[in-house]
Each structure stands twice: as C-alpha cells, then as structure tokens.
Amino acid sequence: MDPVSIDRRQTLAALAAAPWLGTAASVHAAGATMQAWPLNAPKRTGIHDVAPAPDGGVWFSAQRSGHLGWFDPKSGKVELIALGSGSSPHGVIQGPDKAAWLTDSGQNAMVRVGWPERQVRVFKLPEGTPYTNLNTCAFGADGDCWFTGQAGVIGKVNVKTGEVMVKDAPRGRGPYGICATPSGDVWYCSLAASFIAQIDLKTGESRIVEPPTKGQGARRVWSDSHGRIWVSEWNSGQVSMHDPRARIAGGLWKAWKLPGDGPRTYAVYVDDKDMVWLSDFGANAVVRFDPQRETFDSWKHPRESANVRQILGRPGEVWLPESGTEHIAVMRTA
Fold first, then answer.
1. I need a labelling partner for 193 at 20 to 30 A (CA). Which of 5, 50, 116, 136 fits?
2. β-bridge mates for residue 222, sequence order
3. pLDDT tens digits, residue range 119-140?
C-alpha cells in the first residue's frame, strides 16, 4: 500500500517558547527528582504517550487534537504537527530511522513523521478493515513496525514496501501494550484477555504465555536488558516479570504488589539501569521498582489525577505524560 504524504506547510503549527522554567519537586526517595511543565498549547492536546526525540526534545501523541507534539525541555516550546483529517493518535515511539511512528486510531492507520523534516506519511490499514482502535507499536528484528489494536488485532507495516498486514488476535479484543527485546523479539499483552504473547515475526502468529494471576488485566509490557518481560497488571495492582529464558516449563514468573491501598498499575518502562518504572492510578504516583532488592520507591504527583498512561525515557531521564492535567513531567535519575 502506498503511503499518503501530507504537505508539511499545511500541517505544522509552531508555538512560541514558554517563559517559565517549570515546576520542580523532590519527593519521597533519594536518587531522583521530578520536574513538570504545563503544555503551552493553544488548545487541549489530550497528551497520551511520549517518546524521546533524536534532537533532545520529547515527542507526544496529542490524542484529542490529532497531532504529533514536540516539547523542548530547555525552552518550554511546544510544536504541533497535524497528522490528518480525523486523527486521534495513541502511541508514539522513535523508530530505527529516527522518525516518530504513531498508532492513529482516528485514521485507522499507522503514521510516520520524518525528523527533522516533519514530513507526514499515513499508512492506512487494508481496505475493508473495520475500526481496530490502534494502540501501541514496536520494531522487531525484522525491521518492521508491529502494532496492536484493542478491537482484537495485531499487525505490521512492512517498512520497505509500505504494505500493512493485519491479523486477528487470539481470544478477540484486548491487545494493548507491545515491546521489543534487545534481540528483537516482539511481545504484547491483552488487557481484556489477561495474557502476554510473543509474535512469530515470519507468520504473525501469537504464542500465548499465561500469567500466574488470573484476570490480572495485563496493560503494558516492557523488556529489560536481559530480555525479561515486565508487565503492568491493571486489575491486580501488581507488576510481574516473565523470563522466557528460564529452563522450566513455560518460563519463570514472579509478581509483586505495588505499595499502598488499591494500586492500579497502568504504565511500565525499564530504564537503562534495569530499574522498573510504573504509574499507579490508585495512588496518583510514579513508582520505581528495584528488581535486585525487590523494593519500591514512590513519588506522588503534586496535581490530582495526573493519569500517566505511558512512560518512556533515555539515560538519566524518565518521561511521564500527564493526560489528566495537560502537563509533561520527567524523573531525572542520579
């Protein structure tokens, strides 16, 4: 399928630099500080996911306004790049080509925004594909962009040809978070069906792995440097870890309950030091888990209902999009 190009001159909205330095806060634990900024945009963006950009800025998916956002932590500047008519992007990551790749549920399409030229290319799902509620994406060892759709699909964009493939996911609706391991294996999870699965990159088929906690609501997944898969469990309030390399039937599983009363674990991200970061809607907090010590640290957001739905970062920085407050925050680690 040929990608559709959108003229940058018709889609780029650059906003003036903000005059403030942001709101900084040190809370609850040594080794990290939180800083946050309100998004200086002319309208509510509906910030959802974030991804570090190659120029030191941070991309975000503006789900409500239909843009790829770019935020400059040094100046506070926000730039919005329109993605197309009806756009409502959910996930955003940086691809191997240094471009921003987005899952756009509004357009039922994958979108690539070249950087720094900001050229928008829309990869429509095959003709006749019903609404899939596209969620997140990741690049596998095959060099292609794999994605999930909550309506019950997984698929990929063949980067060389532009062809888009879609397959029905096992057990129907629910595919949500997706990630790639350092070796290029691709794993995803199903929120509605409460499982994780590895994708066969040649056939697109799924190999389901059952977590030990039934009905836990696996929402997001992320790999550490060893290829272990970390899972945020929305229903159970746990973080769990699956090690597919373990020499026991089905691999190794471990799980830990987040601290406090009524945790609701949404996002998960593993940083460059293999620390596991999570968002807890129940405590309105960002949580760090140390796998070696099996201990938690917690930082409460200074704004109510921050609603951090995804976390991503780069060495020394863990970025948090506050979809409930129209702020973007960062944890700076020692």
1. 50
2. 230
3. 999 999 999 999 999 999 999 9
Nearest to 11 by CA among 89, 95, 91, 79: 79
How far is Cα 33 from Cα 74, in angstroms, rounded to an integer?
Answer: 17
Is the peptide bond between 96 and the residue preceding it cis, with omega within 30 degrees of 0? no
Cis peptide preceding 116, ω within 30 of 0:
yes
CA–CA separation, 223 vs 241, rounded Å?
9
What's the rounded Cα separation, in Å, for the pair 320 and 316?
Answer: 13
Residue 315 CB burial class (10 angstroms; 0-12, 13-18, ≥19): exposed
Which three-class secondary structure state does DSSP give residue 98?
coil
Which pLDDT tens digit goes with each residue over 213-236?
Answer: 999 999 999 999 999 999 999 999
How far apart (Å, rounded) are the C-alpha atoms in residues 332 and 334? 7
CA atoms of 309 and 168, how far apart (whole Å): 25
DSSP string, 37-89: EE---SS---EEEEEE-TTS-EEEEETTTTEEEEE-TTT--EEEEE--TT--E
3-state secondary structure of 234: coil
User: Beta 265-270 vs 47-52: how paired, if at all?
Assistant: unpaired
Q: pTM, whole model, 2 decimals?
A: 0.91
β-pairing, 120-124 with 4-6?
A: antiparallel
User: How many angstroms separate the CA atoms of 45 and 136, rounded?
Assistant: 18
| Token representation of residue 224 | 């550490």
Residues 48 and 64: their CA atoms lie apart, in Å, by 9
248: exposed, middle or buried (C-beta count within 10 Å: 0-12, 13-18, 19+)? exposed
CA distances from 97 to 113, 201, 304 (A): 10, 19, 37
Q: Are strands 295-300 and 312-314 parallel, antiparallel or unpaired?
A: unpaired
Q: Could you tell me where the DSSP H helices lie in the chain?
A: 8-11
Q: Which of 21-30, 173-182, 202-211 has the lowest mean pLDDT?
A: 21-30
